[in-house]
Amino acid sequence: MPSHKGPVVAQGSGAPASNRETDTVELAELGPLLEEKGKPGIAVPAKAEAEQASPVPQEEEEEEEREEEEEEKGEEQMRVLTLPLQAYRAMEKMEEFVYKVWEGRWRVIPYSVLPDWLKDNDYLLDGHRPPMPSFRACFRSIFRIHTETGNIWTHLLGFVLFLFLGILTLLRPNMYFMAPLQEKVVFGMFFLSTVLCLSFSWLFHTVYCHSEKVSQTFSKLDYSGIAILIMGSFVPWLYYSFYCSPQSRLIYLSIICVLGISAIIVAQWDRFAMPQHRQTRAGVFLGLGLSGVVPTMHFTISEGFVKATTVGQMGWFFLMAVMYITGAGLFAARIPERFCPGKFDIWFQSHQIFHVLVVAAAFVHFYGVFNLQEFRYSLKGSCTDDSLL
Ligand SMILES: [Zn+2]
């Protein structure tokens, strides 16, 4: 907010006020930074400064000051304390900035002027949000166009989609399940992990520009969400794929939990979110996902390739893996923006493609698991029919 300036013409005399006078009025608004005459203070008394600076004759000025004295009831006798004027103006500018942000009056800025903690992808040249230390402003920015708009909406819509899918699946009549409670818990874990991952993600992208601390906290949640999604995706897949081998199922479930929790612990490392560790991040999550190769091999060797690709839904899980790997690869290599810096600032940047592939892969995974469940139901949960599985 612009500050209120004092009168520029001194009352009575008609003489122009000195800079000192304007400053005094400005500082007088500070209130708590003023102290009455006689009490300790650092700043120069207004009167002493005036004697040096004012072009008005001494006599006239004294008269003028007497008038002011009457009007302002001794206010000019107060002494300015502590903060130099420059610091006050800097504070004022900051306040003005925060107010503008609160009102939603901010403009996108180029990468070059971003503070270090907001610098992530130097191939996105323009369209960045400025640092906005207000959650209200961050959430209102969901409806503005900037580098994060696509990232926010891809996972916000994905979150809504999986919330609905989850509710529909869990509300399915129990007659469609062999062990309704157990199977709904298994599906529930998958949907919970998906919904958590997607909501951590869109929240992170929304408040990313709030402040360094908030950005760091939410980026840890975002990365933990990916590990949670991978763990949660393994649960129904292992449950139905090793339906008749409870021991193998338990071992694989335990291993993926240990690996997933380890990835979450690594994600708490402060430097994990730094741009130079982009490949490390992609590697950690790729490794976690690719740990699924071991149970896949186990299933294929014990049941045969034909069964693996038919009743085992391997085709869908393979497609899901290809989508995740493609997404992680584009994310790590920052394709396509690296080939045309500045052309993908708002739409079709690598991170958005990665987001879309994550949602699509999670959907394909759900479809595969849904088919596994249907197949198990068609067998009435039997493990004796060797000709089928
Ligand atoms: Zn993201």
From TrEMBL:
Residues 1-77 are annotated as: Disordered. It comes from the Eukaryota. Belongs to the ADIPOR family. Residues 58-74 have a biased composition (Acidic residues). GO terms for biological process: adiponectin-activated signaling pathway. It comes from Myotis lucifugus (Little brown bat). Zn(2+) binds at H205, H351, H355. The chain crosses the membrane at residues 152-173, 185-209, 221-239, 251-270, 282-301, 313-333, 353-370. This is Adiponectin receptor 1. The lineage of its organism: Eukaryota, Metazoa, Chordata, Craniata, Vertebrata. It is found in: Membrane. Keywords: Membrane, Metal-binding, Transmembrane, Transmembrane helix, Zinc. One of its GO terms (molecular function) is signaling receptor activity. It is a multi-pass membrane protein. GO terms for cellular component: plasma membrane. It holds the Pfam family HlyIII.
